[in-house]
């Protein structure tokens, strides 16, 4: 249990800045991206009326998320943002699931990954808001319902980023620490597979879906 | 200090065990009592499906009991681990573990009891949908248990942590603070997730065709309601791992 | 056991961080759960409005969560800024 909370890091000094990289997260993110690119290649290679296995899986994702995006945004705008939403869900799902393989870690166990995705969603949502309402209309939103509510509205927007990223990070990290501690206590007998099924597959799926849905909702709140 | 180290640790283990099982018993008992009350109420106008209602009530109560059993396990581990040769800080860790487990179990016991009660009412209304109702109740109550599991995790980490020999005020406060953070933090999300599951089960009883949609909405709502519990877990882990 | 003034302050700040996050989590947890419960009830009545209701639920929950976020920020400040 002594290895709890320890990570392999790579630190460099560039131009007077002390930069620290979490190597495990970087390797795992790259492998997830590699698997997804391979999947996309296999799914679109022989597109046909009789789909192959990969095309069927891809169609399930695309179909389900197209419906959700179209319900939340208008048809035009849904076409713009749907690829990002669908890709985000597939990326997060694979990130949360990859931890159940031996010697693999979830990239979402690192706050940097989730905070990065959260900030990305924040900027996309606000960009969409400025584009649809114009800069004046966008700024006016902050002075609703009365002008001195402005600081609270700004804090509320920043709180969204904190909440969305800490939720995913805490769930995945908490799950993986529970699995580590319980495996240590029972010497890895009988119980850990069930914990992997619950925290890896079930909680991982729910949290990936929640993260994606919240990003979509934040965009739709900005453009309405 | 007038007393020996071993006496401090023994006293703290007694107090911690009492806190753990005592607080955990509050939640489990309220939740189970609520389920039993709803089951009785339903039986008064639907005696025909008594077998089904009794079965659902017992299953729901078993889930609500889980948090209480976690509290008992932590109390037993504290009472029966040898106190000789342990540093005084272990006593503070025991207090923190008792608070973390006991308080977080309150919310989860109540939270698991609420869907069990409404599942009993729902079976009285729609006996044919009893399978769907029981499944949704189990999913909802199981998710509502998650903060108790986090409290259990923090308690285990506090119990099995290797601590420095010398007494240290900052470390003692850190261990106690981790217990408070996770313990109190588990109450609200547990009850809130229970309320979400309760209403989801009630609407399934009204309209059983909606099971898929309702399960999805319930899980999303519960995942968001759990987020403050997750923040507490993050703070508690930072506190535990920093000593 | 010798407690210096600085140790005393640091220790109580850490205890305060724990209490801040712990107590701050109670309200948002119950409130967000209430919102989720009512959304489930409403979708049970009107399943065709599920998209709108889910969106409203998530927005309402995000607002009621802000006090939890304040607790988190205060707890992190107490842990990493107060020395």
Rg of chain A (C-alpha, Å): 20 Å
Broad shape of chain A: globular
CATH class of chain C: Mainly Alpha
For the secondary structure, the number of strands of chain A is 2
Instruction: Let me know the largest β-sheet of chain A.
Output: 2 strands, antiparallel
Let me know the average pLDDT of chain A. Answer: 85
Per CATH, the architecture of chain C is Up-down Bundle
- Note the gap between the termini of chain A: 50 Å
Which key phrases capture this entry?
heterotrimer, B: 243 residues, mainly alpha, Four Helix Bundle (Hemerythrin (Met), subunit A), elongated, C: mainly alpha, F1FO ATP Synthase, 4 helices, 84% helix
Can you give a write-up of this model?
The complex is a heterotrimer of chains A (224), B (243) and C (83). With 224 residues, chain A is mainly alpha-helical. Chain A contains six helices and two strands. In chain A, helix 1 crosses helix 3 (75-97) and helix 2 packs across helix 3 (75-97). Chain A is globular, with a radius of gyration of 20 Å. The mean pLDDT of chain B is 89. Chain B is 85% helix and 0% strand. Chain B has helices spanning 5-45, 50-80, 89-125, 130-144, 146-159, 169-206, 211-225, 227-242. Chain B has one domain: lithium bound rotor ring of v- atpase (Four Helix Bundle (Hemerythrin (Met), subunit A)), CATH 1.20.120.610. Chain C is mostly helical and 83 residues long. Chain C has four helices and no strands. In chain C, helix 2 (26-45) runs antiparallel to helix 3 (50-64). Classes of the chains: A mainly alpha (224), B mainly alpha (243), C mainly alpha (83). Chains in contact: A-B, A-C, B-C. The interface between B and C is large, with 62 and 53 residues.
